[in-house]
Design a protein that fits this description.
Layout: H1 3-25, H2 48-69, H3 72-84, H4 86-101, H5 111-124
Amino acid sequence: MDDSELAQIRARRMAELQARKAASSGGAGGMDLGGMVGSGAGGMKGGNGEDDAKKAQAEEMRKTMLMSILDNEARERLSRIAIVKPSNARAVEDMVLRMAQTGQLRGKVTEDQLIDLLGNISDAKAETKVVFNRRRALDSDDDDW
């Protein structure tokens, strides 16, 4: 699929979501991504369909923003990372979006830059350390049998 076909599909999906949201709440669509990030399961709301629609719309906006920020090779690598390690892919996506929102990115993120960001995330996580406690040859516990 071309980028133009994907953009058309996303635009159609976004229009469907906005129409569904307008029909269910009676309000205007076009909500900002920042307002939806923290909308978890806090409290009992009127309808789960409404929450699902908001989450779907937020995820769609996230994907379109990533499409505009990442070049094709970086997008492909990120999708492969998401298959293997979804938590790392989500962390890289969050980092890229935050960098774009703060103006730290000058152009599209390349695959090499994505690899560097993934390395930063991997370095930040603590390494698992395995320690073997070996018994001594003449331990007193061995005599109790």
